[in-house]
Design a protein that fits this description.
Strand order of the largest sheet: 10-11-12-13-14-15-16-17
Oligomer: single chain
Distance between the termini: 48 Å
Largest sheet: 8 strands, antiparallel, barrel
């Protein structure tokens, strides 16, 4: 791909996102900035230096939903420290870049060898996503040395893990403000960060210390029609719409020789376009008294099948506990589930085992199936007597 074609493609991608034209020449001088890999590498606060810590689940969340807030805090004299909890390595865009799925932006199936890069494994793909985020943050005035990549598994951020990071940052920056995503965002990593920060805020409120300044930004609200985005949220004007547009354009940069693959544009083009065209960002106000469900350490959900309902509670990592009851009122013995990722990010494999009865006289395979988009569950329950054909179930999951 020639420099002229690269420049034309970058301009087209930026225009498609509503973020204005970005010149390829802006991204070819000098090596890409590298964020820090350890909290000890973050510079301690200077005396009287005001700090805002931004807790980001995945690269691109910070610019889509929080760019205006980052710039506003900087305008008030605050130093912005951005903590990226995962590298976003689970995104299915990797299959597009590796040529397994046609690229909607290029209108063809990519060939990495012809484009000048090696096929990306999860590590390389995650680093490419981080490069996009660092470039976007630099447009917002954040230095790479104030960006920390934690490296938690994408899609598996727990409240306990996030809370540990928040508390470590609180020790290093004891008077900092804290910002993160909202409980209204459907992604589990977003909700885990929100719950962790709610727990941190609740702990501070119980103590003698002054509660920290916290904000919860909704990223996925840009999926809604413009006139419905502020429902239950506070619409905050973007500090500098042009600067946010330039930062969003970083997610449409195609420069494989510099490890830039327009991943954001391939992943969430609608969110980029809507965020670029909206003069507001949306903040969830924290309640005076935090409801118990906001500070739960464990993920829980209710799944409704055609013959029963089941509650799942996360135990550790990918392990879950299921308690189900049929619509006839029969409570089933609890089951242990293991949910594992598949090569397709939207699909997860699930398998469970359960006691044969309440006397714990034996163990049997209770079911196997898949979860699609973390919402739709398809399961097969083997027959208990070994003679009947078993049961195929379809269920819908509701997050608690």
């Amino acid at each position: 791909m020639t420099p002229a074609v690269v420049a034309a493609w970058v301009a087209a991608a930026a225009l498609a996102s509503g973020a204005g034209v970005a010149s390829a020449a802006d991204f070819t001088a000098g090596p890409p900035a590298v964020p820090v890999a350890d909290i000890a590498q973050l510079r301690p606060a200077r005396p009287d230096e005001k700090v805002a810590v931004w807790h980001i689940p995945h690269p691109d969340d910070e610019t889509i939903g929080m760019a205006g807030g980052i710039m506003a805090d900087a305008a008030e004299g605050m130093r912005n420290i951005v903590v990226i909890y995962t590298n976003g390595e689970a995104s299915d865009v990797r299959w597009i870049l590796n040529g397994l799925v046609p690229s909607p932006l290029h209108g063809r199936r990519l060939n990495p060898a012809e484009e000048g890069y090696e096929p990306l494994d999860k590590t390389a793909f995650g680093l490419a996503r981080v490069r996009e985020a660092v470039a976007a943050l630099e447009r917002l005035g954040v230095e790479a040395t104030d960006v920390w990549t934690v490296g938690l598994p994408d899609g598996e951020v727990t409240v306990d893990a996030a809370l540990g990071v928040i508390r470590a940052l609180d020790q290093r920056y004891p008077h900092a403000a804290h910002r993160t995503t909202s409980l209204s965002d459907p992604h589990p990593d977003h909700r885990s960060l929100a719950r962790a920060l709610y727990t941190f805020l609740n702990d501070k409120r119980r103590g003698a210390e002054r509660p920290p300044d916290v904000r919860f930004y909704s990223v996925y609200t840009y999926h809604r029609p413009a006139d419905r985005r502020a429902g239950g949220l506070i619409a905050v004007p973007v500090h500098d719409s042009d600067a946010k547009a330039q930062a969003l354009a970083e997610y449409g940069v195609w420069a494989p020789d510099r490890g830039r693959f327009a991943i954001g544009m391939l992943s969430v083009p609608r969110l980029l376009a809507e965020a670029a065209g909206d003069p507001f960002e949306y903040v969830e106000p924290p309640p005076e008294r935090i409801p118990l469900r906001h500070v739960l350490r464990r993920r829980a959900d209710l799944t409704v099948f055609q013959n029963k309902a089941a509650v799942h509670v996360a135990l550790q990592g990918r392990l879950q506990l299921r308690v189900g009851v049929t619509f006839a009122g029969d409570v089933r013995p609890p089951a242990l589930l293991y949910e594992a990722p598949t090569p397709i990010n939207a699909v997860k494999f699930r398998v469970g085992v359960a006691p044969t009865d309440w006397r714990l006289s034996g163990i049997r395979a209770s079911h196997a199936g898949v979860a699609v988009f973390d919402r739709l569950l398809l399961e097969y329950e083997p027959p208990g007597d070994g003679q009947s054909p078993g049961l195929l179930r379809v269920g819908w999951r509701f997050r608690l």
